[in-house]
From TrEMBL:
Source taxonomy: Bacteria, Bacillati, Actinomycetota, Actinomycetes, Pseudonocardiales
InterPro entries: Methyltransf_25 (IPR041698), SAM-dependent_MTases_sf (IPR029063)
UniProt keyword Transferase, yes or no: yes
Keyword Plastid tagged: no
GO annotation, biological process: methylation
Domain Methyltransferase residue range list: 39-137
GO terms for MF: methyltransferase activity
Full protein name: Class I SAM-dependent methyltransferase
Gene3D superfamilies: Vaccinia Virus protein VP39
CDD domains with a match to the protein in the record: AdoMet_MTases
Length: 189
């Protein structure tokens, strides 16, 4: 499914391979371990990270997945019954949440291909994420290690730091193709 999406729309898929279970677990680890959290996954794709989120949530909380590609959204609907799949652009996050009566979310997990999104789009999406997060909420996303020194990656890191008071980088997830780090961001400015 993932490879078909890459071939169908290479300008919208940022990876060459789906995220590994190790990266999915790392991303999902920011989801509260108790209570009924509201979780949003941006760029849910073929469900590689969704597996980690589903495992972390179990039967708790509310889980929304935003996916732009219509075929991938259909795949998610069939395979992830707990996920409310929204076939939409992440730039519409504020409206998507408002339409569903959601005032705040506890965690936003992103698999979006940030390098393929222009600076204005990045700023718009992160603005919606910051507005949507509960005061103690968390945003997480990942970046490939080999690209961290590139101008786009450094610019994205500065944008994260301008949007959130705390931006932490995790250790490298070597069990991913390619190896990746995750950003854990808290306290929107």
């Amino acid at each position: 499914m993932f490879l078909q999406a890459v071939l169908r729309r290479p300008s919208l898929i940022g990876g060459v391979w789906p995220s590994s279970p190790a990266l999915a677990a790392r991303l999902a680890s920011v989801i509260p371990g108790s209570g009924d959290p509201v979780v949003v996954e941006l760029g849910a794709g073929s469900g590689a990270v969704s597996d980690g989120i589903t495992a972390r949530l179990g039967a708790r909380g509310r889980y929304l997945g935003v996916e732009l590609d219509e075929e991938l959204a259909g795949h998610l609907r069939e395979n992830y019954p707990r996920m409310e799949v929204l076939n939409a652009n992440a730039t519409e996050l504020g409206k998507l949440l408002a339409d569903r009566g959601i005032d705040a979310v506890d965690a936003v997990v992103s698999g979006l291909p940030w390098a393929l999104i222009g600076v204005d789009g990045q700023r718009e999406i992160l603005g919606h994420v910051a507005e949507a997060l509960h005061p103690h909420g968390v945003f997480t996303t990942f970046a490939y290690v080999h690209a961290l020194g590139m101008d786009n990656a450094r610019r994205f890191r500065r944008l994260l730091e301008a949007t959130f008071d705390e931006v932490l980088l995790t250790r490298v997830v070597w069990a991913n193709l390619p190896p990746a780090i995750t950003y854990v961001c808290r306290r929107p400015r």
